[in-house]
Amino acid sequence: MTQTHSADEDFSRRFRNALGMFATGITVVTTRSPSGEPIGLTVNSFNSVSLDPPLIVWSLANSLPSRPLFEACEYYAINVLAEDQAELSQRFASRLDDKFAGLAVDAGAGGVPLLRGVCARFECRNTVRHAGGDHVVFISEVVGFERSDRAPLIYFGGGYRRLAP
Ligand SMILES: Cc1cc2nc3c(=O)[nH]c(=O)nc-3n(C[C@H](O)[C@H](O)[C@H](O)COP(=O)(O)O)c2cc1C
After folding, report:
1. Which domain holds residue 157?
2. Domain presence at residue 4
C-alpha cells in the first residue's frame, strides 16, 4: 500500500514536471457572483479552440470554492497578463478575501470585471462545460476582445519568465 502511494506521488510529480515544459502565458479569469461581488483566479490552462465560431477553452479545478460561481455565471472574462503583472498572478492564485482590493477595473459583458494593463482581454459567454477528471473544462464563445502591444508574462517549469528580446 505504502509502495503504491509513493509510486502515485512520484507519477504526479513527474507528470507535473513534464507538463511544466509546455510554456504558457498566464491569465486571470474574472466574473461576478450573483450578488455582484467580483471574483477571479489565475489560470494557465487557457487556449484557443475555434476561429468560426470564436471559441476558447480553459479548465477549473473541481475543488475550488469559486467553481459553482463560474459554472453558474452568464459571462466571464479572460485577462492575459503582461510581463510586469506577476504580482497579479500571485494575488489571484491566493486565497485572499478580496483579491480586487485597490484594483481599478473596467466593465465587460454582463458587468464582468476587466483588468487593466493586460496584453489582451476576452469577454466570453459561458456556454459549454465538460467534466474533465478533477477539473471542469469550459468551452466558451468570445463575444468581445481587445489587445495591446504589451509583452506577455510567461509561465514555464513552475516559474515566471519573460520573452527573450
Ligand atoms: C500560474 C498558475 C496557473 C494556474 N492555472 C490554473 C488553472 O488553469 N485552473 C485552475 O483551476 N487553477 C489554476 N491555478 C490555481 C488557482 O489560481 C488557485 O487555486 C486559486 O487560489 C484559485 O482561486 P480561489 O481559491 O479563489 O478559487 C493556477 C495557479 C497558478 C499560479
Report:
1. 26-162
2. no
DSSP string, 20-67: TTS-EE-EEEEEE-TT--EEEEEE---EEEETTTTEEEEEEETT-TTH
Report the nearest-CA residue for atom 20 of ligand 1.
93
**What cell was used for 111?**
458587468
* pLDDT given at position 8: 86
- Which percentage of the chain shows pLDDT scores above 90? 93
Q: Are 29 and 75 in contact (CB under 8 A)?
A: no
Identify the residue whose C-alpha is closest to ligand 1 atom 9: 60
Asked if residue 6 has pLDDT above 50, the reply is yes
List pLDDT tens digits, range 131-148: 999 999 999 999 999 999
Choose the residue to mutate in 24, 28, 43, 161 for probing ligand 1, maximizing ligand atoms within 8 Å of C-beta.
43
* In a domain? residue 109: yes
**Does any domain span residue 154?**
yes
